[in-house]
Amino acid sequence: LTQALCFAQRAVRQAPSGVQVRPRILVMQASPDSPHCYSDMMNCIFAAQKASVPVDACMVEYSSGFLQQAADITGGIYLKVDESSALLQYLLFVFLADQSARSMLEMPA
Question: pLDDT of 5-37, one tens digit each?
């Protein structure tokens, strides 16, 4: 997450004048959370919030309290995919839309 934030900030700084870059981060996880990383993860989440970078989380088979908080705090989307055969559908129809288009979509429960 830290490295993705660094890349996002670099893209914003290096964008040609007149070009507005709106970075966002998609985190995919297929394992349970590791409690010893909590403070590092929260620091990254608050840095993403300050930089106005939404963090989207796509969880495969597991739930994540860390990433659910990240999505809530930064204005991203948290989605737990129970059936891995539907993963591509979720990626294309939920996470591909930009921030303005998301307000017009009905997200899956």
Answer: 999 999 999 999 999 899 999 999 989 888 888
- What is the distance between the alpha carbons of residues 83 and 60, in angstroms, rounded to a whole number? 8
User: 3-class secondary structure for 35-85?
Assistant: HHHHHHHHHHHHHHHHCCCCEEEEEECCCCHHHHHHHHHHCCCEEEECCHH
pTM of the model: 0.86
Instruction: Tell me which residue has tokens 């620091």.
Output: 43
Q: For the sheet containing 25-29, what is the strand order?
A: 25-29, 55-60, 78-81
On whether the CB atoms of residues 56 and 24 are closer than 8 A, the answer is yes
Structure-token pair, residue 21: 């870059």
- The CB-side HSE value for 2 (13 A sphere, CA atoms) comes to 6
28 backbone dihedrals φ, ψ, rounded to 5°: -110, 130
Amino acid, single-letter form, for residue 62 = Y
